[in-house]
Amino acid sequence: MSWDTVRLEFREDVATLTIDRSDALNALNVETLEAMAEAIEQAKTDGARTLVLTGAGETAFIAGADIAYMQELSVSGAREWGELGHSVANALESFPAPTIAAINGYAFGGGCEMALACDLRVASESAVIGNPEIDLGIIPGWGATQRLPRLVGDEAARRMIYLGERLDAESAAEAGLVGEVVPDEDLESTVSELADRLAAKPEAAIQTAKRAIDQRYESQQAAALNYEKHAFAGLFDTDDQREGMAAFLEDREPEFN
Ligand code: DAK
Q1: Which residues pair with 99 in a beta bridge?
Q2: What pLDDT, on a 0 to 100 scale, did the predictor assign at position 2?
Q3: Is residue 219 pLDDT above 80, yes or no?
């Protein structure tokens, strides 16, 4: 099945969801997020036993939320935008079967957050990963404030978010942000093999294992994600947010207050 910027393909029990907006390095706009939500639902209905998320092309997994779109958002628009991104990340996280992010290039901001919402992450050697929202005058708003510290620890997550640090694939693996780094040309085959191994496990047991692991933080996380969503939206309509996004779109350094 395909939408304008999203494809869903099945290989036996393994579904692959590919984001394809090559003119914007697969950055996520409203249309793409809505298509992702439909594709994830479709994969569930069709009984996928592993779901793989990746980006089209060789440069980007997902370069983030669409900055050109966000630049014009009001506080209430940012709230709706936040809801949409959260619902897609939550749909990935609560997908009944295991999910894998095949990180084939830049995974920034909302792109990193979609990878964080997957169960497992495999990166190509040339991937670069991070949450650089601070340099746009905002914060990560689709779950990184909660899901990143869980993977890399509190100090490393604070450094990444406060400084907008972008990690190369090896550093991301050392930090615990990705489970495996492979040569670029081996990413697809490595992920396929892993996906097949997961799909071959007893379905009820693996899905129950996933739900049981997720119980660890579920109740606490819901409240924290809600806080993040509102805190994010509150940063819209500030001088720093306008300056940060304008500077990116004008290809210059921002001058913050
Ligand atoms: N949005 C829109 N367009 C993007 C984009 C993005 N995130 N990233 C790249 N592009 C576009 C560029 O504008 C450029 O378009 P044209 O000029 O060709 O029309 C094209 O993709 C190619 O990009 P570059 O020319 O910049 O390519 P380079 O190879 O030089 O650099 C790069 C690649 C990935 C290093 C660079 O593009 C980059 O730094 N991109 C931005 C990365 C970033 O800051 N990502 C985080 C976005 S903020 C929310 C919650 C969460 C969020 C939003 C809301 N709520 C709760 C409301 C999430 C926020 C984010 O994700």
Answers
A1: 51
A2: 86
A3: no
Q: Is 155 a catalytic residue?
A: no
Q: Which residues line ligand 1 (CB under 6 A)?
A: 24-25, 27, 63-68, 70, 78, 81-82, 85, 106, 108-110, 132-133, 136, 140-142, 229, 232-233
Q: Would you state the structure tokens that stand for residue 141, as one six-digit string? A: 């708003």
Q: What is the pLDDT of residues 124-173, one digit of tens each?
A: 999 999 999 999 999 999 999 999 999 999 999 999 999 999 999 999 99
pTM value?
A: 0.94
**Residues recorded for the chain:** 257
Q: Measure the CA–CA gap between 123 and 172, rounded to whole angstroms.
A: 9
Residue of 34, 41, 80, 113 with catalytic role: 113
Domain positions in the chain are 6-185
Nearest atom (ligand 1) to Cα of 229: 56
Q: How many angstroms separate the CA atoms of 143 and 89, rounded?
A: 8
Amino acid at 169: A
Tell me the mean pLDDT in the region 50-78.
Answer: 94
* CATH fold group of domain 6-185: 2-enoyl-CoA Hydratase; Chain A, domain 1 (3.90.226)
Residue 164 structure tokens: 């907008």
What mean pLDDT comes out for the span 219-246?
86
The 10 Å Cβ neighbour count of residue 97 is: 23
Active site residue 180: no
Average pLDDT (52-72) is 95
